[in-house]
Amino acid sequence: MVRVKGFVLTEEILLKGGGMMFDWWDEIDESEEWQRFIFYFLSASYALVSLVALVQLCRIQLRVPEYGWTTQKVFHLMNFIVNGLRAAVFGFYKSVFLIKSKALEMVLLDLPGLLFFSTYTLLVLFWAEIYHQARSLPVSKLRPAYYCINGLIYFAQACLWISVRLSDSNITVEISKLFVSVISFFAALGFMIYGGSLFFMLRRFPIESKGCQRKLFEVGFVTGICCTCFLIRCIVLTFSAFDTKADLDVLDHPILNLIYYMLVEILPSALVLFILRKLPPKRISVQYHQVR
Predict the structure, then answer these.
(1) Which of 61, 146, 193, 237 is deepest in the core (most CB within 10 A)?
(2) Which residues cross the membrane (predicted)?
(3) Does residue 5 form part of some domain?
(4) 21-43 mean pLDDT
(5) How does residue 207 score in pLDDT terms, banded at 50, 70 and 90?
(6) Is 69 exposed, middle or buried (0-12, 13-18, 19+ CB in 10 A)?
(7) Does residue 113 lie within any of the structural domains?
(8) Based on the structure, what is the number of domains in the chain?
(9) What range does the domain containing 212 cover?
(10) 14 within some domain
């Protein structure tokens, strides 16, 4: 018991008051109504971003129907798929989080994250091709390297899923989270290297040159946004691999899921789609490459 200026504070009152600021978090986590609201809100947010990507893809196709699957079209198509999958996962959140097979749960939650990685590293590939062409460097190996790296990543992740199914060990689950954390770090590094290189190369052009200021804005902001989201993913997944309180793959952490997915996928995707909203010219430009 503590006496302060005539007021008597018992240990029970002190403990109750000290934990008041954290009670709301626990109450929301344990509330089925809040869980339903948050996960459906995430589903609706992903569905909206997916719809925006689809609309933009249709606008590009109407603008340049004579060209096939260009890098820009593939980027918007993959955004549509990734966000659509996330919308479905959070729309059926109870079936996903309460599924008996841990391996199948990891596939449903991790596969959109891997597709998100492939989608946004496509921008790194696009910028790398522009930078190499501007420097008169060979570009023939960049696209095969992109395909090989992504293929190895999907193969390694599939092996981890199979290991989880066969062993049902927490160690394998932790390794899988650390694996995604590592590839997220290298994605951020790729944006810093090629996004930064292209940004500083564009800065050397006269600022009054046509389109230079807009390209500087696009490259600078997209690089900053993507670096930040992949670094946040790297840090959070590293912590969640060793701390159950930071585990995202459970039903009773809705607030953590809301903050995490808003910061690493929904907001970055929405911002990048907004920044890259400009349609290509009707005549193909030098920087508008076709996917081979």
Answers:
(1) 237
(2) 37-62, 74-93, 113-132, 144-166, 178-200, 221-242, 254-276
(3) no
(4) 79
(5) low
(6) exposed
(7) yes
(8) 1
(9) 25-275
(10) no
